[in-house]
Task: inverse folding
């Protein structure tokens, strides 16, 4: 059997699998959709119908459209990212290749140079892991530099006004969809208890600190831009190594750009640059502020888009550096 | 011409039930047209509130297939003939009869908002402001008070926290005054304590249902929450205001 025959057979097998698998998936999704719609639309035996024919209770609605798709996919998508980020953070190795540093590990505060694919010692801000940290470090956690810095971007995203929309809907079911019954507020108080909904006035009052996480996120734009700059120098040796470009450099250059579109479109940023003012006319300083506010507003109107693009690209950047470091992908570059 | 099945809530504050109506639907009709046809031909005693038929009076708010909508702006060609179209009154407010609700609670919320209070006029006795200063506020003035946002807000709809939260409609009214370039009233304590800005958890359903496409969440509620954060949750701005206040008399800018 020659190569052409093998290629034809492979194409046929892939086509059959694609069509068959796709059809099966589509039918399964359709059936699941009907089942969910029938399940959530049917009044439950213990549900109470008010005057107006509305039924109260979690997930109760008269909506007949597929309202559950958006919270399902956004919730699932974010979980996938969190799962990957945790896995990548656990590795503690293969986060450096040539001059490329994975954004999950940037900035590298301490480095364990005995790990495969670890950053060179000169790229760690504070050198090797100090003994006192090793002594208090939980034994089941690898000494991964990612754990020291991941909390910052994570806290920015978790207090973000867009992410709040999606995770209150997807995870807290408060509400799962518009005009769909929300999670009862007394669910934590037990069947006989009374616990009233408090929104962001009690436990979630910390969301008001979003602007502080934004300040830190701005610092990350600078740090990741520096990483992108370093990626242009062979071996990461700025000014002393050969200047060039690789696919990884482009990946790492796009990363801070997308993060900047997300970070500078933040609602807190929009407020701080001009939204807190009531007048935009006056001296040149005020007029510049208005101009800046309009640009931030443009980004803000696309905040959801940039939130997802930047998040996916951060994960992809780590994936690319990791694959190169593991030798699975060969980076194309000019060096 | 097609035949559709409408399942309409018929009842009052004491009791009620869904009643099915089969009716002909002509090309170009909206849900309000069909309800009028049912009212004319099959259910002369069916109550529904309407006025302009142009999406500007905000009277015909109801729930069509579970979604808060203006009946006059909901086109029939967005539904399939084989689907049953369910029409209900707004859930958040008490039913008076059939599709008509008592929305008077909203008028009480409006009274909680301090009225417009302009600062001193210019030397010639006139007030001046630039168009770009009032663009933001004019978006909020598009509100037709249909109360679809109030209906869909889960704080009011599901959690019944009408005691602590005034709802999206009155958050945008507060924003329209607080962001006004001539207004000098300090509303921030009220926005947090009386209007309940902290009860909104930004799930944006109010924005999704607004027939005037007002960005309620992004342009009104979140900026107000940020202004509250300025006052109560940001020590840096608090310190800055204190230091600035030592050198000048603080005024709303």
Result:
């Amino acid at each position: 059997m020659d190569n052409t025959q093998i290629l034809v057979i492979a194409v046929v097998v892939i086509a059959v699998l694609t069509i068959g698998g796709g059809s099966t998936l589509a039918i399964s999704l359709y059936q699941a959709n009907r089942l969910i719609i029938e399940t959530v639309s049917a009044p439950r035996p213990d549900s109470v119908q008010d005057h107006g024919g509305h039924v109260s209770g979690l997930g109760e609605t008269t909506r007949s459209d597929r309202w559950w798709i958006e919270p399902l996919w956004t919730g699932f998508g974010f979980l996938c990212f969190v799962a990957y980020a945790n896995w990548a953070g656990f590795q503690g190795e293969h986060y450096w290749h040539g001059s490329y540093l994975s954004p999950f590990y940037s900035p590298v505060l301490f480095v364990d140079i005995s790990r495969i694919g670890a950053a060179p010692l000169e790229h760690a801000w504070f050198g090797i892991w100090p003994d006192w940290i090793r002594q208090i470090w939980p034994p089941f956690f690898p000494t991964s530099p990612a754990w020291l810095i991941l909390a910052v971007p994570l806290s920015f995203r978790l207090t973000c006004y867009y992410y709040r929309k999606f995770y209150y809907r997807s995870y807290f079911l408060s509400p799962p969809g518009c005009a769909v019954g929300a999670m009862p507020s007394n669910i934590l108080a037990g069947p006989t208890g009374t616990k009233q909904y408090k929104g962001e006035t009690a436990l979630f009052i910390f969301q008001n600190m979003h602007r502080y996480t934004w300040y830190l996120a701005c610092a990350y734009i600078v740090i990741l831009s520096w990483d992108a700059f370093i990626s242009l120098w062979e071996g990461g040796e700025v000014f002393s190594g050969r200047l060039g470009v690789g696919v990884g450099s482009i990946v790492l250059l796009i990363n801070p750009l997308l993060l900047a579109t997300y970070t500078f479109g933040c609602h807190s940023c929009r407020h701080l640059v001009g939204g807190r003012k009531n007048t935009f006319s006056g001296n040149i300083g005020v007029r510049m502020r208005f101009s800046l506010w309009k640009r931030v507003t443009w980004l803000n109107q696309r905040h959801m888009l940039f939130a997802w693009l930047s998040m996916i690209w951060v994960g992809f950047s780590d994936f690319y550096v990791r694959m190169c470091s593991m030798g699975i992908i060969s980076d194309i570059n000019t060096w | 011409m097609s035949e559709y099945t409408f399942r309409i809530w018929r009842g009052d504050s004491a009791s009620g039930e869904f009643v099915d109506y089969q009716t002909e639907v002509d090309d170009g009709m909206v849900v309000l047209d069909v309800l009028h046809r049912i009212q004319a031909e099959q259910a002369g005693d069916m109550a529904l509130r309407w006025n302009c038929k142009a999406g500007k009076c905000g009277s015909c708010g109801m729930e069509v297939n579970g979604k808060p909508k203006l009946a006059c702006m909901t086109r029939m060609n967005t539904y399939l003939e084989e689907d049953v179209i369910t029409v209900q009154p707004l859930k958040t407010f008490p039913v008076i009869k059939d599709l008509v609700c008592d929305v008077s609670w909203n008028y009480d919320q409006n009274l909680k908002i301090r009225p417009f209070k302009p600062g001193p006029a210019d030397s010639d006795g006139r007030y001046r402001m630039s168009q770009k200063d009032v663009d933001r506020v004019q978006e909020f003035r598009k509100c037709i008070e249909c109360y679809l946002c109030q209906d869909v807000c889960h704080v009011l709809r599901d959690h019944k926290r009408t005691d602590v939260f005034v709802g999206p409609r009155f958050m945008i009214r507060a924003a329209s005054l607080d962001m006004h370039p001539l207004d000098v009233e300090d509303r921030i304590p009220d926005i947090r304590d009386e209007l309940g800005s902290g009860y909104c958890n930004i799930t944006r359903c109010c924005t999704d249902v607004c027939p005037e496409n007002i960005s309620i969440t992004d342009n009104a509620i979140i900026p107000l929450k940020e202004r509250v954060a300025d006052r109560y949750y940001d020590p840096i701005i608090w310190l800055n205001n204190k230091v600035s206040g030592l050198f000048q008399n603080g005024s709303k800018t």
Chain B has two domains: 2-101, 104-247. The first strand of chain B starts at residue 2 and ends at 11. The radius of gyration of chain B is 22 Å. The first helix of chain B runs from residue 31 to 41.
